[in-house]
Amino acid sequence: MKINKQRMIKSFIELVKIDSLSGREKDVSLYLKNILKKMGAKVLFDDAGKKTGGNAGNLIAKFKGSRAGKPFILSAHMDTVGPGENIRPILKSDRIVSDGRTILGADCKSGIAIILEIIQVLKENKLPYPPIEVALTVGEEAGLLGAKFLDYSKLKANYGIIFDSERALNQVTANAPAADRIEIEIHGIAAHAGVSPDKGISAIRVAADAISKMKLGAIDFETTANIGIINGGNATNVITPLVKMTGEARSHKIFKLARQTKHMRETIEKAAKKAKAKFKFCAKREFHNLHISHSDTVLRLIGEAMLEMGIKMRPVSSGGGTDANVFYKHKIKTPIMPTGMKEVHSVKEYLLLKEFFNSAIVALKVISKL
Length: 370
Hints:
- This protein has helices at residues 5-16, 26-38, 48-52, 106-124, 145-148, 203-213, 254-275, 297-308, 323-329, 353-369, and strands spanning 42-45, 59-63, 72-77, 90-91, 95-97, 132-137, 160-163, 171-176, 178-187, 217-220, 223-232, 242-251, 278-287, 290-291, 314-317, 336-337, 341-342, 350-352.
- The chain has two domains: 5-176 and 289-369, 3-Layer(aba) Sandwich (Aminopeptidase), CATH 3.40.630.10; 178-287, Alpha-Beta Plaits.
- The protein starts with a helix and ends with a helix.
- The protein is elongated and about 85 Å long.
- By secondary structure, the protein is α+β, with helices and mostly antiparallel strands.
- Helix 4 (106-124) packs across helix 10.
- The strands form four sheets. It has a six-stranded mixed β-sheet with strand order 1-2-6-3-7-16. A five-stranded antiparallel β-sheet has the order 10-11-12-9-13.
């Protein structure tokens, strides 16, 4: 599969020059709308922007395909983290970097540039391909918001590829955990710490007691938990009446996640009961797990494509969540392909060109094998 490397570089550079922090993807979405329409796609936006407080919805582009077959989805996200305004990309011999003031935006505009190149190569070479659906999401960096509010009624594909990984090219993400966000309030009783401490119930002491008995960190090889934020107290001479804590639990197995979340609740409950304090415990599913078997069609074809290029694919597990987790909940299986992005979410971010180009070649080979 022959790609146009210079075109890919140009496409990527043009994309990262368009600011698109989470919630402010309108400019890049309109830019992409025009490009995709010129390629012959039917383009539409859903109302995810209204639901998330952003200025743009998810972009969905549909290509009819040149042969019969099941629809295939290609996806990446349009938003970036900060500092991501006025990005100035610099092309070096083997990579693209920022000027050091900002991120580069390879996460995930490298994925978008790969998708654009795939469509271009398919069409200009008159290669046979099935119907293709392109889903470019908003708000991924803000908690997978675009994927969560995507209008799935507009999609027919139940398999495809998401381009959103900084791993080495041969490491394709096939598994990722589900996560619960946990919010806790402990309500004690305020009292003067020097005059009448016995009349108070310290929410801080209850929290400390609970945390000391709570299983946190690596619970087992596929389950983790953490308390990441603790707020409480405003004076040294007051028995603290309220502590708020925010944490999470993650696991590749739903039953293990439920067990860990239950354990965290019970630990808070026991500590509060012991001190005669009150508490509130709220657990909300942030995202579903992702589990794609080694025999899955797309994963198998990615492996075959890489082998033709002298690369041995290795399916890997991630500890984080991506749009693929949300897609999986909606019965769309999408292994996550690396794009050549490295050191993301930092001003040291860069795009390794060899992996950037090869990611597009692998995907083109997969589509040819469908």
